Probable 2-phosphosulfolactate phosphatase (Pedobacter zeae), 250 residues
Amino acid sequence: MLLDTLVLETPRMSKKIEVCLTPALINLYDIEQSIVVVIDILRATSSITYGIDNGAEAIIPVAHVEDCLNYRESGFLLAAERNGEVVTGYDFGNSPFSYTKEKVGGKTVVLTTTNGTKALHLAQKHAFQVVIGSFLNLDSLCTYLQSQDKNVLLLCAGWKDQFNLEDTLFAGAVVNKLRQNFEHFDDSSVAAEDLYLLAKDDLRQYLRKSSHSHRLAQLNIEEDVVFCLQLNVCKAIPVLEGERLVALKN
């Protein structure tokens, strides 16, 4: 009887969590059965999270600035950012302060950014599911990932296909919170968590050494950076459904 029980038992799938440090490496990961968390802390995924939490009906990520124009006659808000700046002629860029209830509540935003929307489209091609991560929704995101019987890939948008510090720190924060719920980690997860543990007591101070922080400082948007490093301001988890990012319904 014991033998029969052992044979009939189905072993529990051991979930793994991985960190892809740049979109240039995503082809190295098998993500067909994975939830991919797209991370672009400064500022795309922070702004997306804040916008969805503030009642935006949907946010449509597009690859190119010109693609936004295809939606102008639909009455959607058009948001375009390149190299940290708002593209001339568009409603706004990717500052979180453009995604308040007053501006985006009940509306659809079409968004293109330097790094974040590119990472979204790469993930969409093969992932089981694509969700958005930021410090603003860290706890909600981790609670959701913990509840799913799926592998997780934390995809850092980086900067023009290169490694960046802020996205990696967030990936490390997720790994740190989920460590007890996943059995397999890759070395990039270990490195990301170690960096997060070094930085977690003062994320802003730690990130002053980052290249993107210097770029944003030249644009005089320190308030954006500070806002994006806040913890758990939002409950919403944006999820990609077709071409639209909408609020995940648990």
Summary: Residues 5-11 have pLDDT under 50 and may be disordered. The radius of gyration is 18 Å. The chain is about 35% helix and 20% strand. The longest strand covers residues 34-39.
